[in-house]
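ugh ok fine here u go
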Amino acid sequence: MRGMRVAIIGATGNVGRALAPALLERGAKLVTIARRAERFRFLGYGTAQVALDLDRDGPLLKQVLAEVDCAINVAHVKHTRAIIKALPEPSLRLITLGSTRKFTRFPDQKTAQVMDAETAYAGVKGVILHPTMIYGGGDNNISRILRIVRRAPFVPMPQAGAALMQPIHRDDVVRALIAAIGQEVSGPPLVIAGAEALSYAALVKACGKAVGREVKIISIPIRGMRLLARMSRMTPGLPSVTADEVQRLLEDKAFDIAPMQARLGVSPCTFEEGLTRMRMAGEIAGRNAFQF
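structure:
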């Protein structure tokens, strides 16, 4: 990978901010791309930086991509067609971060965008990696649950939080992206997930343990959850929950990671290990933060 010219599209987002230094450590030459120039200050290192709008600046994007060996799209998956259109030649490798939202029983706009990205990938050299819920590094997923359990001794959930989920730590997403480049992985889309599936209830309790709180799960009907979600959006200081997020609390999101391990050579961490990483990075605040 040393000397490889890599463009990171969406470099100032949560995954991009971790991916860029990891690639620099491996000797890659980076072009970082983001929509707003002022956000480059969060990167904290020197790379070639280009500010552009993926929906409007196609010619500029094509000019930038003509100077690299590989592009990684960690911006929103909805931009996939615009990026593919800007590829200077079919041989340029493109790795895209998609979403396991494609498997939901409750399809929405993002589901359609993920499916459209897969359709657009026909003939493209590279692969789409579909992550489960990403946490760590200032995410809006597990970090939001941590904020809730610090404040509340109980958490309401439909079906007592029995549905399964399999979050993946940001570090493992970065490892998967780098492996996809280094091993020149191509072919069908690939799910990347955490080491284990656990129930929502177990996940919330683990978050409570991480901040030194014993959390109880209260089972309430889905209608009650929708009402509480609406109230959360009207209550200052309380992490908000959307109606769509409530709906998805009813479905299992568990995946086989054997293909990920076989094609990428990446074995992800457990959720407990991921919480430990967050604590060591200072992402779990509070005097009573539990140390695993």
